[in-house]
Each structure stands twice: as structure tokens, then as C-alpha cells.
Amino acid sequence: MRRRTAVILGLVAVLLTSLVGAAQAGPKPDIVGGGDASTQDYPWVVSLRINGQHFCGGTFISNQQVLTTAHCLAWLDDPTRIEVVAGRDQRTGDGGDVFAVSSYWIQPDYDPDYYRNDIAMLMLPEPVPYPWIEIVEDGETQPYEAGNVGTILGWGDTTEDGALAETLQQAEVPLLSDEDCAAAYAEPYITTVFCAGYAEGGIDACQGDSGGPIVVDGRLAGVITFGRGCAREGSPGAYTKLSLFAAELHQV
CATH fold of 45-123, please? Predict the structure, then answer.
């Protein structure tokens, strides 16, 4: 499996994960098969950067908290080095706002080998003037019913092993049943995730999209976590299931 973090120049050895077998998955980058989007329509989606370079996505879930994945933070010796860029459509452009990070939280039981409990949060030193999105609540099941449509967003690669998107991308993907998710990925990988995508592939998250949102019916249902390649046939995207962590997140 491949993680869906982007590679930052000079940190390739730290960020890349090796392929560990055909049944494994990994984090995803940019949106494959998507179209241009705007932070005016999605003001709560953000770019996470180190030294000005995008490597993961995130989502405001309050005016002082950014939700992302644990694997986006765990490789860093000090995640407070991260800058949160909001209100900027262009990955390499200007505009919007850049916010510092004061502290962070990584789910204590995060398992980097199988992407279990792959959830984390960045805290900003003070409230910011950006809207946030509501997350699904603890134990909810309706948002995860097969056939529901999720909207994914990010600045990740637009093709597998390609280049990061210059403009924020969006795409819609159908949620899959637990059975179809299990058919795509071995049991250890699906403990805390749900899957979304098309059987024929073609539309998916990719490297650089990790930590970004999947939104169902106007609420944040998950964060982009891993996949086998990008937009491959029979290889849906996997997303950390927020209904398993909502109660915990409210306490952070």
C-alpha cells in the first residue's frame, strides 16, 4: 500500500514508504480524475506545508483545530514546524493566510504498519477567521451506507506518480460496503477505515491528498488515508472513519 503524502524535496527518504505486497495499501496524493475547485466554496480545506512546500491536506473542524492523518505528522520530529495555509486555491500562488501551529495530537493507538487509527489534529495558537465543517458524530452509520456520494478535495497528484496539482481539485466518489472494502484490502487495513471509489477506477485521491477531507451530505465523514496506487481498477481509496473517533476528538 502507499501512503498519500507528497514528497518534500530533501526529505524523500523520510516520506516515501515501500511497497509491502499486493494486498497492502498506502497514503494517497492529489485527486485523480477531478476538476478545479475553490476555497471560496470549501473555506475549511487547508494545505499543510513544511518550508513552504505542500505535503498533506487538512480540514478546519473548529476555528482553532485542523484535522488530518497521523501519518502526515508522525514522521516529523516537531510537527509544530508545519504551516497551515488557508484560503489559497493555488498550491504555488499567493493569497490566503498562513497560520502557525502551537501544538498537536496524534491518536495514541496509531498503527503505521496497517494505518489503523490514522487520525491527528493540529492546534493553532488563537482562533482564526475561517469557517469550519461539522464532523459526523460518534457511532453514526447512515453517512457510511454504500452508495452515498463523498466529495474529496486536495492538491495531490493528478496521476499516479505524477505531479502535484497547481489548483485545488475536487471529485465525487461512491462509498462502498464493508464487504467490498474487505475484498479490496486485507483485514488489518480496514479496521478503522471505509472505502470509496469506482470498480473501474479512474477517480481517486493520490499522493499529496493525505489528511484531506471526504465530505458526505455536508459533513466531514473521513480523512484521506491510503490506497493501492491511484485510481486503479479494483483499488478504492481508504478513509479514516470519523464516527469511530468523534467522541475522542471532542475531548482534544
Answer: Thrombin, subunit H (2.40.10)
